[in-house]
Amino acid sequence: MKKAIIMMIVVFALVVWPFSGVWQLLSGIIGGGVRESFIYPIYGGIILLSGIIVVCTELILEEIKSLKDDIKDKNEGC
After folding, report:
1. CB 11: neighbour CB atoms within 10 A?
2. Mean pLDDT rounded to a whole number for the chain
3. Displacement of CA 65 from its chain's centroid (Å)
4. Which residues are CB-contacts of 32 (< 8 A; sequence separation ≥ 6)?
5. Three-state secondary structure call for residue 30
6. Is the pTM of this model over 0.85?
7. What residue ranges are annotated as transmembrane (predicted)?
8. What is d(CA 73, CA 77) in angstroms, rounded to the nearest whole number?
9. Which residues lie below 8 Å from residue 48, measured CB to CB, with a gap of 6+?
10. pLDDT of 24-37, one tens digit each?
C-alpha cells in the first residue's frame, strides 16, 4: 500500500509538477514528441485518480476490518 502511494507521488511529480522538465527529458527515451505533449497532463490526471482510488479502497478496507472486530467483540461478550 505504501509503495503504491509513494510510486504514485513520484510518477505524478515526474509528469506534472514540479519536475515536469524531467518528463520532457524522458519523453525522448519513452517516445512521443510535440504531437503527444498535450496528452501528458491527462497521464498525470490518470495517475492521480488511480492513487486516490487505491487510498480510498485501503481506508474502506480498514474500516470494514474494524467493524468486523467490533462485531466479534460484541458476540463474544454475549
Report:
1. 17
2. 77
3. 22
4. 39
5. helix
6. no
7. 5-26, 38-61
8. 6
9. 8, 12, 16
10. 666 666 666 667 66
